Amino acid sequence: NGKAGLMNIVSDIDFTINDHAYVMELKKPFKDKVNLDYFIIRYQRDFLDFVSSKDSNGTFSKEIAQNYEIELVSIEDQNSFMVEYNKKQRIVNKINNSILDINKQIEKITEINSQTKKFLISELFKVISGKRIVQREVYNNPGTLPIVSAQIDNSFWYASKEWLSTFNKNGKSLIFNQPCISWVCVGRAGTMFYRNFEFYLTDNAGVLLPKSNKINLKWFIATYQEKIRDLRQGDRQRQSTMFTEHMANIEVEIPVKENGEIDIDLQNEIYAEYKRLSDIKEKLQLIIDRYSLYLSITLNCR
């Protein structure tokens, strides 16, 4: 129980266990036929599937594990795989360390160390929420206009612009067609996205429309995403909220020049460096993903 199903190798020491753990010891005919490192890599995911639940109360089914059938490839193939795996893993570890260094640099550059002025978000942006529409109505009014909601994977419903134009809030259209920031009001509340296309806004999302051209929207997201997300209300693991009044009254610090004017040039400079580092980080992550895919395919083919 606890971290149920996780396997580790214990060797070269005497030990005992309590009732929170099990031991698997190779039988004599198989002592020279199984590479334990290979076994863990090959079957760890399967063993985790034996667990009764995925939270801290999960328990491991010894009976299912005992009767689970595995495929045993030759020890030569197991050892060969481990040589290749360890080589790739060393590379992945180095790349992960590089990503950690980049994250530290990103955190450093997004810290505002210059002269700043405090603003409420409502002073910098028009803070707007949308209006509910139901999925059945969307299907009955097909079209090509994206509908922005609480989705965080940037997947959209699409519907007729003519139909969506019939909806308004306080007499104002809910179709937006200027660079702006949308945020999630319910669910992963506070998660922000840069939008530079025409869309309709539902009631479980909000929009920040800049009141001037003195805010680099991408810089704002890069600098304040985590800080704003940390201010969300409710259960942060499941269904947190951040509605318009809450968002509007969040205080942020914006870099300013000596004369007190908002410093858009510094924002642009910071975001350019942030983007450069983020692009490097993305390329490194792609390398890790390719190595992981290679090892997964190789493992499954054995």
Q: Largest beta sheet, briefly? A: 4 strands, antiparallel
How much helicity do the residues have? Answer: 40-55%
Class based on secondary structure composition and strand pairing: alpha+beta
Read across the widest sheet, the strand sequence of neighbours is: 2-12-8-10
Mean pLDDT: 89
Order of helices and strands: HHHEHEHEEHEEEEEEEEHEHEH
Which range does the strand content fall in? 15-25%
Q: Tell how many strands the DSSP assignment holds.
A: 14
Distance linking N and C termini: 31 Å
Uncertain residue segments: none
| Overall outline | elongated
Tally of alpha and pi helices? 9
In angstroms, what is the radius of gyration? 26 Å
For the structure shown, list the relevant keywords.
four-stranded antiparallel β-sheet, four-stranded mixed β-sheet, 302 residues, alpha+beta, 9 helices
Concise structural overview:
The chain is α+β, with helices and mostly antiparallel strands and 302 residues long. Helices cover 41% and strands 17% of the residues.
What is the strand and helix layout of this fold?
Layout: H1 36-49, H2 62-66, H3 75-109, E1 116-120, H4 121-124, E2 125-129, H5 135-140, E3 145-148, E4 157-159, H6 161-164, E5 168-169, E6 172-173, E7 175-176, E8 180-184, E9 186-187, E10 192-195, E11 199-201, E12 205-210, H7 217-229, E13 240-241, H8 244-248, E14 251-255, H9 264-300
Parallel strand pairs: 3-11
Antiparallel strand pairs: 1-14, 2-12, 3-4, 5-6, 7-11, 8-10, 8-12, 9-13
